[in-house]
Amino acid sequence: MIDYGTVTEPGTIRFERVLPGPIERVWAYLTDSDKRGKWLASGPMELRVGGPVALRFHNTDLSPTPEVVPDKYKKFEDEVNLTGRVTRCEPPRLLSHSWGGETEEASEVTFELTPRGDQVLLVLTHRRLGDRGAMLNVAGGWHTHLGILADCLNGKVPQPFWATFATMEGEYDKRLARG
User: Fold this and answer.
1) Within its chain, how far is the Cα of 56 from the centroid?
2) Range of 29's domain?
3) Domains of the chain: total
4) pTM given for the model
5) Where's the Activator of Hsp90 ATPase homologue 1/2-like C-terminal domain (predicted)?
6) Predicted confidence (pLDDT) per residue in 109-136, tens digit
7) For residue 22, what are the CA distances in angstroms to 89, 92, 110, 114?
């Protein structure tokens, strides 16, 4: 079974994943640049409200499986940079930051962690997504990145990013209501 993200209101998508704990381990994969770089993007993050966030994406390097980047995504093949500001930080349970800028128009991503025995429930909510194109990109991207996070935490070889992303973006195109 694939756990798809769900639209909770216009411009907002939410994902839930149960991951191997403990919570401090999952928190480290959200906040430590080296660990975050294995599944999402490396870069400094000051863990305080107002602290800067810099994310450097190297999606091609997230899996050792060689793959050809689809033409549609060639411009993202090398490093992609994104900035933001921490908007909430309650270690090791909650982290929110703006996504793609520091203005009020920027979208916002929130990670909530809840222990469940030796596992951790991760709830990721991405808000203020402007249009359907942004929703499809973010939905496919988070779905793929969260799968790679689960692979890393479970000691598995991560799935190839680009092939998975292209498949998931297409799947969300079918699943998300049109305009």
Assistant:
1) 13
2) 6-174
3) 1
4) 0.95
5) 22-153
6) 999 999 999 999 999 999 999 899 999 9
7) 18, 10, 19, 10
